[in-house]
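Recap quiz, item 2
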Amino acid sequence: MYGKGLRPLSLITAASVALTLVAALFWAPNDAYLGFLQKIFYVHVPLAILTLCGFVAAGLMAIAHLRTRDPRWDMRSYVAIHISLIFGVTVLITGSIWARGAWGHWWVWNDPTLVSFLLVMLLYATYQPLRFAIEDPERQARYASVFAITAGAFVPINFAIVRLAPAYVHPRTLSNISGNLPGRMQVVFYLALFAITLLWITLWRFEMTAKHVAAQTRRLRALLGEESDEEGPVRRSAAPSLTHAGSVS
Amino acid sequence: MTRPASSTVVLALLRAQLRLELRTFESLPAMCLFSVTAFLLFHFGLDVDSLSGNLASGVLWVTLLLAALLAINRVYVADAEQGGFDAFVLSPAERSTLLLAKMLVLLIYLAVVELVAVPAFAILLLEPSLWQALPSMLGALVLGNLGIAVIGALVGALAVRTQARDLLGPLVSLPLLVPVLLGVARWTAPLFDAPRAGAVALRWPLVLALYDAIFGLIAFALFDFLLED
């Protein structure tokens, strides 16, 4: 069912990402201090917001999984963390480039936002190894949800605490937006946020669709009595399989 | 069958774990030895004879945190390997009593380790006298230990029945413990300032207490799901 409407969604996403790039590169004014480099802001900040929101959303999906015991919620949570991890890596890379340009260093320790983001990424980097280390799929799903909820709660708390450390150099994005970003920059920023949100949702739905198709194919093959293409002992996997519940829709 | 009172269950579990430790000495001696060795490592690694301020506070707390990992990795091993979990789930006891018992065990371990490690640190590395820092440091030790115990008891249970428990325990718990480290290290740093102790910022005790409380609630809410099989 996940494939429904995926084509129009993909087209809208591609169009809004393209529009954002054009607007950011040609329409938005150059920053007075940073010049052209400031344009990376339109990619970096929305990606970071989406990464963190994705982690929190994965925690909420994990709560739904523990409440309903429906393995599809575990799959949704897994895919959300997966997409957010990929987004997070791009945030670290674009952030590093920005830091190098603006402050002259690839990494700056006295900036709480940067440090807490790295901390969150290091925590979530253990999500897949944790799943991989548990063989029983039902227990794997349950333990992964416990992790996703704990880590999802950690994200906002961690940001609040690390921010208490005294030194600030990072621009306070959201307060800047309402405060002193000039009009055009503000429009482009919200456009970028919208486009990247769509990108996250589209990628999430693509992966969900792929996982469901794979599960359904496996189930149909089993019904036909075909030989499994994975010979020998069953391989361990970090990804939820959906087969253990027998319900694929 | 009537349900036994939670306090009875917690005390029984606590007694069992402490008796196990007294018979096998699996965790405590290792933790104490590790702490003193770590101070030596810092002495040679940093090439300093005495520490004060931020550096002293950081060295002390990083050492205690790493020593705590030894206990976090071990605290559920007997339950996982010798059927303790199964027996406990079959008993009519409330599930969360096990979490509470393990938190208390970790708190006791940490207190014992600190009885060794803090004086050793004062003798080996600390430049100002320990006595000036001790009164306000006790609060940091209590709230810091509480944070380590809460997160350790949850992550220990999460990691113990995986195939890479020795790796996953530290990898998952260390990022979660960074705010605790930040809180206690910033709290005690002015106490270790060289000529005379500086003032403690009030926000660190508050932040630590809040963090401990939030993760305590999360641990109690989620622990049941780690036990059912």
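Residues 137 and 244 of chain A are 7 Å apart (CA to CA).
Residues 9-222 of chain A form a domain with the Four Helix Bundle (Hemerythrin (Met), subunit A) fold (CATH 1.20.120).
End of item.
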